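Supplementary notes for students who missed Thursday's class. We covered one full example, reproduced here. Read the sequence, then the structure, then the short commentary at the end.
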Amino acid sequence: MPEVFVFILAIIAISYGYKLLELRMRQGEPRNSDNATRSEISEQFARLEERVRVLERIVTDSNADLKRQFRDLGE
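Structure (token representation):
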């Protein structure tokens, strides 16, 4: 059970890390930066954010916890 909490905390830390990275990148950009690069970074960030949401859903899913408990019983 503690591994689940560590995994959830890791997901939260990663999501906040990406938000901080995005803020730093915005601050460091020159005013006349290339819009293609900005949109590319935004797309990458959106994909990463969606992946984190999926991972959160998997970890917090009660069926996944039940499967884990059955697996632990078999060991």
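Commentary. The two ends are 15 Å apart (CA to CA). The chain has three helices and no strands. If anything here is unclear, bring it to office hours.
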